[in-house]
Design brief:
The protein is mainly β. It folds into two domains: about 200 residues, Immunoglobulin-like; about 200 residues, Sulfite Oxidase, Chain A, domain 2, CATH 3.90.420. The protein is about 10% helix and about 25% strand. The strands form five sheets. It has a five-stranded mixed sheet with strand order 3-1-12-7-8. It is elongated. About 45% of the residues are buried. The structure holds the ligand Nc1nc2c(c(=O)[nH]1)N[C@H]1C(S)=C(S)[C@@H](COP(=O)(O)O)O[C@H]1N2 and molybdenum atom. The site of molybdenum atom (MO) has 6 residues, from loops.
Length: about 425
């Protein structure tokens, strides 16, 4: 198989210009993004060459806070609380408190007793409040663009500019830490142990951010605004390299422990609690029936996960008749894949970022030039698109996949879907 050509980035402006000029087919879409339509150019007049396909319209780079797909547990859902119930839950900016304590010596998995120089508790009036966290942010604040993606749902939930304070700086308030192997944390859960949704990090993941890496942080702003109750405010944990289940909403408690286990609630549901965000492409819906001679643009989103992104490619569908993925690895290797176009970085980041936010101050950007250090940015998502031209009548199966920087094509090297939903996406359509 001949290697596909390198992906050619297209600019956001090109995307928008061509797609708005094109006739769009109305599609039923399961995705939450408003711009999620596939564009198809009008059929070419007889004898004329088919018009170039109109690229898929890209989503807005930042998803509005209320447009994220929501994954929240709880009865009632914490973000449905109002009035006094909200105050009792300590989920207003004034009432929010964070407790940081050590695990009980009774934990049977502990081989030693974990301890903190200074616990922060409600009982003794030392629990951290929002003004103290914001004050810490004046010195240590970080900003970071991240796609939120559930481990169990294929389509990314949304992408935001998150802002907050590294967890290591918050834990420093409680030093010295003794015999700590892991850190657990959870949010408001209606004071009902059955509704607890907990996540965890190793001690080093929390405390020793490597140079150029992204820290775990306590976020209090999203897209330049305070984090809404709906998105887990006033304060939410954000773990840049992880799937959504590590980014605990309505954060209220951190516990340091000598227990070595990744004691995440998700671990009890057969998920891999240590799996980082998976590089994967997602494919938008395709019209079920496409008139012959009509050029069609396909596209979707791609997440640059733990192992980065080299390209997105789709199967060359010029030959009708194939149904489903090839049965054997040899047949798969013989497939023709065509590189898709990746959305280029915005020429002007001020048009994408909230007012007053400089790209130079965002982690993952060059602090001198204000340009992204990698593209796509680590743990973020962009749109991709490709054109299908000159398809003969027949049934087609379209597939798209991401190839990571180690040349693994999705779902490899992570075929186990409970470690991050990244199955090869397949759509069927018919040219008539
Ligand atoms: N407290 C709490 N935090 C939570 C959850 C939850 O149910 N309760 N769901 C988690 C999961 S599984 C995901 S995928 C993300 C979803 O974030 P979003 O609702 O902001 O899109 O939140 C995470 N944080
Ligand atoms: Mo999730």
């Amino acid at each position: 198989m001949k290697p596909p050509p390198a992906s050619t980035p297209v600019t956001r402006r090109d995307f928008v210009r061509t797609s708005s000029a094109a006739a769009t087919l109305a599609l039923s879409s399961g995705f939450a993004h408003p711009a999620n339509v596939l564009a198809a150019a009008a059929p070419a007049p007889a004898g004329a060459p088919p018009k170039p396909a109109a690229p898929t319209a890209p989503r807005p780079f930042l998803t509005p806070a209320d447009k994220f797909r929501d994954v929240s547990r709880g009865t009632p859902k914490p973000h449905s609380l109002t009035g006094d119930a909200l105050i009792q839950a300590r989920l207003t900016p004034e009432t929010w408190r964070l407790e940081i304590t050590a695990d009980t010596p009774a934990n049977p998995a502990a081989k030693d007793v974990a301890g903190l120089g200074q616990a922060l508790t409600l009982a003794d009036g030392t629990a951290l409040d929002l003004p103290a966290l914001l004050k810490l942010g004046e010195r240590h604040g970080v900003k970071f663009l991240k796609a939120m993606q559930c481990l169990n749902i294929p389509t990314p939930l949304g992408q935001g500019l998150w802002e907050g304070v590294p967890l290591r700086e918050v834990l420093r308030l409680c030093g010295p830490l003794r015999n700590v192997r892991r850190i657990y944390y959870w949010g408001f859960h209606n004071h009902d142990p059955k509704q607890l949704f907990q996540s965890s990090l190793s001690y080093s993941q929390a405390m020793e951010t490597p140079p150029g890496e992204l820290p775990a942080f306590l976020a209090y702003r999203l897209n330049g605004e305070p984090i809404s109750l709906l998105r887990g405010g006033p304060v939410r944990m954000v773990i840049p390299w992880a799937h959504g289940f590590k980014s605990i909403k309505w954060l209220q408690r951190i516990v340091v422990t000598n227990d070595y286990r990744a004691n995440d609630t998700y671990a009890e549901q057969n998920n891999d609690p240590e799996a980082p965000l998976k590089t994967a492409a997602y494919l938008d819906n395709v019209p079920a029936r496409i008139p012959a001679g009509q050029a069609v643009s396909i596209g979707g989103l791609v997440i640059s996960g733990w192992s980065g992104l080299k390209r997105v490619e789709c199967r060359d569908s010029a030959k009708p008749g194939a149904t489903g993925p090839p049965a054997t690895p040899a047949a798969d290797a013989a497939e023709q894949w065509t590189a898709a176009q990746l959305e280029a970085p915005p020429a002007d980041w001020t048009s994408v970022l909230p007012a007053g936010v400089s790209a130079r101050k965002i982690l993952g950007f060059n602090s001198q030039t204000g340009q992204p250090a990698t593209w796509p940015l680590r743990y973020s998502m962009i749109s991709w698109s490709a054109a299908l031209n000159g398809l003969a009548p027949g049934k087609y199966t379209l597939r798209a996949r991401a190839v990571d920087l180690n040349d693994f094509a999705q779902p490899e090297p992570r075929p186990m879907q409970k470690s991050g939903r990244n199955a090869l996406e397949v759509k069927e359509f018919e040219v008539v």
